[in-house]
Design a protein that fits this description.
Elements (H helix, E strand, L loop, with lengths): L11 H8 L11 H6 L7 E5 L2 E8 L3 E4 L10 H11 L6 E4 L1 H11 L3 E5 L5 E5 H6 L6 H13 L2 E4 L4 H18 L4 H15 L7 E7 L2 E10 L4 E9 L6 H13 L5 E3 L7 H8 L5 E3 L2 E5 L2
Parallel strand pairs: 10-11
Antiparallel strand pairs: 1-2, 2-3, 4-13, 5-13, 6-11, 6-12, 7-8, 8-9, 9-10
C-alpha cells in the first residue's frame, strides 16, 4: 500500500532528485510548479520502487497519474496495473510529454489511446530572439518596447524586500479585481502567485518588479529549469501602461537568463487573447502534452 502525502517545501530535494534531468523541457517538471499549484491540482505523492509517483485531480479533467519519475519502459504494464490497484483514476496518466506517451503506447499497444488538447501545448521560445526582438516578425513588439522607454520614467527591482513584495501583492489584487474572480482557475492562480511571492528564496526563483513613476506596474517570476531552459512562472502588468508587458518580458530575460537558449512560457489554457499574445512572440516549438486512458 502506497503512503500518500501532500508536498511541502521540505520535499524540494526529494522531488529534484527525480525531476532533474537535462533533457526536460516542460514546466511541469519543476518542483516550484508542482508546489505552487498543489492545491489546485490536489497533488499527492509517494515513493515506490525507486520511483516518484504523483497523482492529480483537476476539475473538468478528473484524476490521473503523472509520469512515474524513474520508471523503466519495460515495466510500464506492471506499473499501470499496480497504480490502478492502489487508486483507480479517470485517466491512466495526464500532462505527460511525448517521450513517455510513446513509451506507454509501445508497451500497451491498442489497449490505450493518447489524447492531446491544443490548449495544453506549452510555448517554447528562443531566449536570444526575445531579447533582441529583431526583424519583421518582432516589429510590433519592438515598437511597444521602444514606446515604453520613450513614454515613461521607469526602473526595475528584484522582489527581495518586504516593501517591494507588498507592492507586488497590491498590484496582484488590483489585477485580479479588474478581471473579476468568477473563474476557479483565476482564483487558484491568485493564490498560487501570492504563495510564490512569499517563497521566492525557498523555491530559488528569479524575480523582477517594474516601476513607473515610483509605482509597481508589473512583475514577473521565473527560474532556470536546466542549463538550457528557463521557465516564466508568472507575468502580470498594468495593461494600460503601453509596452509594460513587452519591456518586462525582454528585460527580465536579458537580466537573468541571457545565457540560456530557450524559455518556456507555458500554455494558453484555450484563452483566445492569451493564445494570440503567445503566438505573436513567435514560438520555435510547441511542446505537446498527453492524457492517456484505456481505449474506449
Amino acid at each position: 500500500m502506497l503512503t500518500w502525502k501532500k508536498p511541502s517545501l521540505s520535499d524540494k530535494a526529494l522531488f529534484e532528485s527525480f525531476l532533474c534531468f537535462d533533457e526536460r523541457e516542460s514546466y511541469e517538471t519543476s518542483f516550484a510548479t508542482r508546489y505552487i499549484w498543489r492545491n489546485y491540482t490536489a497533488l499527492e505523492f509517494a515513493v515506490h520502487d525507486h520511483m516518484l509517483i504523483m497523482i492529480n485531480h483537476k476539475k473538468g479533467r478528473g484524476s490521473y497519474y503523472q509520469m512515474p519519475c524513474g520508471y523503466k519502459k519495460e515495466n510500464i504494464p506492471q506499473i499501470i496495473e499496480y497504480l490502478q490497484q492502489q487508486r483507480p483514476t479517470d485517466y491512466l496518466f495526464g500532462e505527460v510529454d511525448e517521450y513517455f506517451a510513446l513509451d506507454v503506447k509501445e508497451q500497451m499497444g491498442d489497449r490505450v489511446e493518447l489524447i492531446t488538447d491544443r490548449a495544453d501545448d506549452e510555448y517554447i521560445y528562443s531566449v536570444e530572439e526575445l531579447i533582441q526582438l529583431a526583424g519583421r516578425r518582432f516589429h510590433n513588439k519592438r515598437n511597444h518596447w521602444n514606446a515604453f522607454q520613450r513614454l515613461y520614467s521607469f526602473e526595475t527591482k528584484s522582489i527581495d524586500s518586504q516593501e517591494v513584495h507588498d507592492q507586488c501583492l497590491a498590484l496582484l489584487r488590483e489585477w485580479f479585481c479588474n478581471k473579476g474572480l468568477c473563474d476557479e482557475e483565476l482564483q487558484a492562480e491568485q493564490a498560487a502567485i501570492s504563495e510564490t511571492l512569499n517563497n521566492l528564496k525557498a523555491l530559488r526563483l528569479e524575480s523582477m518588479a517594474l516601476y513607473v513613476d515610483n509605482k509597481v506596474v508589473g512583475f514577473t517570476i521565473g527560474e532556470r529549469l536546466t542549463p538550457k531552459m528557463a521557465i516564466i512562472h508568472f507575468e502580470k502588468a498594468d495593461a494600460s501602461i503601453r509596452g509594460a508587458y513587452n519591456y518586462l518580458n525582454q528585460h527580465f530575460l536579458e537580466t537573468h537568463f541571457s545565457d540560456m537558449e530557450f524559455v518556456n512560457r507555458q500554455e494558453d489554457a484555450g484563452d483566445p487573447g492569451l493564445r494570440k499574445a503567445k503566438t505573436d512572440y513567435n514560438p520555435i516549438k510547441m511542446l505537446k502534452k498527453y492524457y492517456i486512458r484505456w481505449k474506449q
